[in-house]
Write a structure and sequence with these properties.
Layout: E1 27-31, H1 36-41, E2 46-53, E3 56-63, E4 66-72, H2 77-92, E5 93-94, E6 99-100, E7 108-117, E8 127-135, E9 146-147, E10 158-161, E11 175-181, E12 210-211, E13 214-220, H3 223-233, E14 236-246, E15 251-252, H4 256-274
Helix pairs in contact: 2-3
Length: 275
């Protein structure tokens, strides 16, 4: 790896994230919104690291005796490509010699995100865990992946799955299903404001598709990329979704901040007891 491939800042930190290897814990919570980092870390008993560059804000601290990092990714799998590759480099590549370590480390990558449901049996403010993620974003065109062949979805759709964490101690009710990961919020998710749509995905029919007895449940913009890169690089990933929008009946949560806070606290308690 040359200096144009693995780019470092003048202090030796990784280029985009502005982090050193000692700045991150083995368990990393991924949030899209930079403002949500503090919404998570406010529950830490102490914070050791606070760093920021661009949309990537990082807090590392302690929750019930466990060291945890929370980092904002920004929106989309293009940012996920940056974040997960650089997190992996921090733990698995010697940044001075730019050679992989002989013994590789596995990170726990835990997404806490928001999402819209596309299933009639799921309600606004529910929690959905992504068992599998189908990506219609372009990231799968550049990495080896399992292709999903279904005429109702674009020909480039790829399918990924979560790490089989034990969820028996998760303290809130949840549902599991297949998450559709989209490369945009408006046209790619079937929202029409003024721009016409060329490629339309049948959002209101996807729940009828099942894979391994799991239906499509929700749509968002990061999970497939997280699962794809975690699998390729040997990390353990899971995506938790707070359902804020119901795409079938046109409803949006009246208490989004509260719903997200419930998910944050439940995920932290689960991490402290099970991860």
């Amino acid at each position: 790896m040359n200096s144009a491939e693995l780019i470092l800042n003048t202090d030796g930190s990784i280029y985009h994230l502005n982090l050193l290897p000692e700045d991150i814990a083995t368990t990393v919570i991924l949030v899209g919104d930079p403002g949500r980092v503090a919404d998570v870390s406010k529950y830490f008993s102490s914070i050791d690291v606070v760093k920021a560059k661009r949309e990537f804000i990082t807090h590392t601290g302690w929750f019930e005796g466990k060291r945890i990092t929370v980092i904002s990714t920004g929106i989309g799998t293009d940012n996920i490509d940056i974040v997960i590759n650089e997190l992996d480099a921090l733990v698995n590549i010697n940044l001075k010699t730019k050679e992989p370590y002989p013994q590789l480390r596995s990170l726990n990558l835990i997404r806490i995100g928001t999402s819209g449901t596309i299933h009639p049996g799921i309600n606004v403010d529910d929690i959905v865990i992504t068992s599998k993620a189908a990506g219609v974003d372009a990231l799968g065109l550049f990495y080896p992946h399992q292709k999903l062949n279904d005429s109702r979805l674009p020909s480039w759709t790829y399918i990924t799955k979560r790490y089989p964490f034990d969820l028996s101690s998760f303290p809130e009710a949840f549902k599991e299903g297949i998450t559709l990961t989209s490369p945009g919020f408006y046209g790619p998710q079937g929202r029409i404001l003024r721009a016409p749509i060329e490629c339309e995905i049948p959002i209101k029919e996807l729940y009828k598709i099942e894979i391994d007895h799991l239906p499509f449940t929700n749509i968002e913009m990061e999970s497939s990329g997280i699962y794809l890169l975690a699998d390729l690089l040997g990390h353990k990933a899971i995506s938790f979704n707070s359902i804020l929008a119901h795409r079938l009946d046109g409803k949006f949560s009246t208490m989004p901040a509260s719903s997200i806070d419930v998910l944050i606290k439940a995920t932290l308690r689960w991490i402290s007891s099970s991860v």
